[in-house]
Amino acid sequence: MGIPDPVLEWLLEPSDPSMRFRTLTELFDTQLTAQEVAREYELIYDSPAVNNIFQKMHPDGYWLRKKSGTREMVGAGVEYMSASTTHYCLAYLSELGLTREHPMIKKAADRYLGLQAEDGDWFWHLSCLQGFNIKTFLRFGYRDDEHLKKSVNLLIASSRFDGGFLCDMHEKRPGLKRPKSCIRGSTKALEAFAELGEDYWSLPACQNLCNYFLSRNGIYTMRDKTRLVNHDVSCLFFPFIYNAGLLQILYSLSKMGYGNDERLNTAWDLLEKKKLANGRYPLEKTPSQSPWKVGEVGQENKWITFYAYLALKYQEKTIYNTQLSHKRLDST
Q1: Same domain, 221 and 322
Q2: Stretch 300-318: mean pLDDT, rounded?
Q3: Dihedral sign, CA of 155, 161, 165, 171?
Q4: What is residue 75's predicted lDDT score, i.e. its pLDDT?
Q5: Which of 194, 215, 236 is the last residue of a domain?
Q6: Are 263 and 214 in contact (CB under 8 A)?
Q7: How far apart are CA 304 and CA 312, in angstroms?
């Protein structure tokens, strides 16, 4: 993986406890003692990033924002709105390392889960929101929750003819031939499967989804593998919202074992070209409405750098596992 020492020291700075904790536990798989974990969590809970998001939370456990052009406040329900409403704020807190063990997370997360539809849907059967929320609640520690299980089952059942995902508003448009899947919704589903773990990676829905991306060399159109499917896929943005970005696709596919697939070579080359001379990566885009300010656009960024090296870690692990598998086969 070859992280330069100055980059590693930067990611481990005590001033950013969430980044420090995730670098230790995810990038380097450091096994912390219970006492060390408790100390790290205490620092995360008291961090400015976490406190700023919690300060904007309604006492009943949700985040509101004025609907554009109106006086109406939205966010108390499952509306798929701006980058500052409930589902996004929950996602930011999960990225910062919080879990359901924090009482304010439990209050907000349990409330949001209680708004789920009977079939496990959240809002208009939006595949992007479905995958997005599954990833968030898995990170919070709700893997065994019955609400989340229904959402996961619905995600699996929603796999389409081309391997991707699409929401009902586009699926059921009258007078049109069956539309292709949505790259953004498919990326959110890809992230959800990556978070679900190995027990789900062999399922046809997951295999077909991975092939959906590999068949387009990760980030290109099916017909022309030199033309980006949209602008998002070439961009380094954070925090992750509805977009389909380069890091999300490479990280998810690598985590599921496809990092060394030659069809991703051009996507990896694009990521490499974005690396700065000092080994760090820049933030190219961030949602202006987000209450979590992760840095200045155009400047080197810890979160982008972390996810870039995490994706590369899984790519390297894929190469290692492939080589190890070949050695075992040669010895039999």
Answers
A1: yes
A2: 94
A3: negative
A4: 87
A5: 215
A6: yes
A7: 12
3-state secondary structure of 58: strand
Could you say which of 215, 236, 260 is where a domain stops?
A: 215
Answer for the pair 104, 57: CB distance below 8 angstroms, yes or no: yes
pLDDT at 321: 43
Count the neighbouring beta carbons within 10 Å of the beta carbon of residue 253: 26
pLDDT digits (tens, 9 = 90+) for 64-107: 988 777 888 888 998 876 889 999 999 999 999 999 999 999 99
Q: SS3 of 14, please? A: coil
Question: Which structural domain range is residue 276 located in?
Answer: 217-332
Average pLDDT, the chain: 92
Number of Cβ within 10 Å of residue 103's Cβ equals 8
CB atoms within 10 A of CB 118: 6
186 CB-side CA count, 13 A: 28
Type of residue numbered 177: K
Query: Residue 278 half-sphere exposure, CB side, CA atoms within 13 Å?
Result: 13
Residue-level pLDDT at 18: 98
How big is the chain, counted in residues? 332
Q: Report d(CA 150, CA 154) in Å as an integer.
A: 6
For residue range 113-161, what is the model confidence (pLDDT) as tens digits?
999 999 999 999 999 999 999 999 999 999 999 999 999 999 999 999 9
Q: What is the DSSP letter of 50?
A: H
Question: Rounded to whole angstroms, how far apart are CA atoms 206 and 210?
Answer: 6
